[in-house]
Structures are given as structure tokens and as C-alpha cells.
Amino acid sequence: MALRVSPWGSINRPSGFSLVELLVCCTLIGLLTLICVQGLQGFLPAARVNRALREVIALLEWSRWRAVRLGSVFRVVVSAEDAAVTVFRVTQNDEGEEELVPARRLDLRKDHPGVVFGTADGVVRTSGCKPVDPSGVHLKDHAIRFLPSGTSDRCGSLYLIPERDLPDHPDRMRAVSILLTTGRLQTWTYNPFQKSECPDDGGWQPL
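Predicted structure:
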């Protein structure tokens, strides 16, 4: 490429990037891409759990609302093995025996692949310092009933975690608790660095 000389005698160098400048730019772009990819690898599992938690909460709220609206009892059954939540309307047949009529179902493996009921190692419950059951379901008989009064027949919690994070990464865990006195729901996120009254650091924060 020929150099041009200006009327004042100075040399006008050709515009553009040198090879060294291009290499530096490519290196910086590669580093930034790597950082973004690593960040997304941590963000996406947590985002999937958040979406699954919202659906679990919506199903529980729907069951509670339908119990009040219809003046009937709705039974929610949680299967940790199948990663599913099934809602039944409780009715009585002609003989006065209780019957369960399927109403709705949430299948995590189908609707939210990679998200399961479970817990990371050493995580304590949302109340007290006892560890979370490995199943991630803290409900007697893995079931709860919402009554026409809007309350529930028991309290408990459900814990969600990305399946690939078992048994590590407690920071990606989420939970929902059903309050006995009101039947209302409380959502939680786990913070491994939170100070708590339990022997080890880490605790739940309202979400």
C-alpha cells in the first residue's frame, strides 16, 4: 500500500487495525465470552428452578382457591420419585365413602426437565435446624388437604433443586412452605453464607 504525503509534508498512514491490535481484540472477546458462558451455566439451572417453583405455587394456590369456591376439600399428593404433584377433589359416593377425583397434575420431568424435589447436602429445613429429607418433601404421607375454610389440615414444605446439582450447590435450591393456621404459602431461597442459629452457616431467606 502506497503512503500519501500531505501538502504540509507529513505522511498519512493507512487507516485500520494492525495485526497485534486485532489479536488483542479477539483475545478480549474470547475472555468475555467465556465469562458470560460460565455465568449462564450457573444462572440457567436456578432460573429453571424458579419457573418450576412458580408452577408448584400456582397449583397449590389453585387448589386452595377451588376448595373455598366450591366448598369442597382438595387433596394434593406430592411424589418425589415421579417429580409430580397431583390434585384431587375429595367427594363421597352413594355409600358415603370418600372418593378422589383427579383435578390437575404437574409433571416436573415433562414440564420442567432437570428440576426435581430434593436437597443438597447439609441443608436444614425452613424451620428448625433438622436437615431436609433427601426426598425434598416435608409433608406427612406426602399429602396435604385444603379445606373450604381456606386453611390446610397440616403444614409442611417442598424443596426444589436442579437434578444435576445434587448433592451440591445449595444456593440454587428453592422452597415453598404451607402455613397451617392460614393455608397461605411462603417461598424461600437458600443462602449458604447466611448466619443462622444452626450449627453450620447457611439459612433460608424469603423469596
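Summary: Residues 19-65+112-142+149-206 form one domain.
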